[in-house]
Amino acid sequence: MIRQAMIRWQEIAKQLLSLTSRTDEESRDAVIEEIEKLLDERDLLQQEISSPFTAEEEELGKVLVGLEQQVVKGLSTFTKHIRSDITAAQSKKDHMKSYINPYANVARDGTFYDTKR
Fold it and tell me: The whole model's pTM is what?
């Protein structure tokens, strides 16, 4: 018989995979909150899963290891999307500032040297 904690872990992993595939910016905050909630729940489940394991649990464990690798990959690509969006927003902000005040970043050392004298 398989423990409920392991079955729930598998359900959470599948939910995380589906959430990390959603990349639309409109619902990103809700997706992040849901991911955090699922990760917290998974941390609590981890305490309930300990050896000895039955043969059925060993087989499910092998499936869970594969799912976890996919979850880690999905979470890393999700964070890469967020980082790239933050970088793009920052560069747009800097670009707009350069249009508003084009001489703000000019180095002014205070002196002009005439080389023809």
Answer: 0.74
What domain range is 26 assigned to?
Answer: 4-97
Report the C-alpha gap between 40 and 33 in whole angstroms: 11
Q: Is residue 110 situated within a structural domain? A: no
- Helices 4-20, 55-100: axis angle to 10 degrees equals 30
Residue 74 has pLDDT above 80, yes or no: yes
The string of pLDDT tens digits covering residues 103-114 is 777 666 666 666
Q: Report yes or no: 5 and 49 within 8 Å, Cβ to Cβ.
A: yes
Q: Report yes or no on 105 lying in a domain.
A: no
- The number of distinct structural domains making up the chain is 1
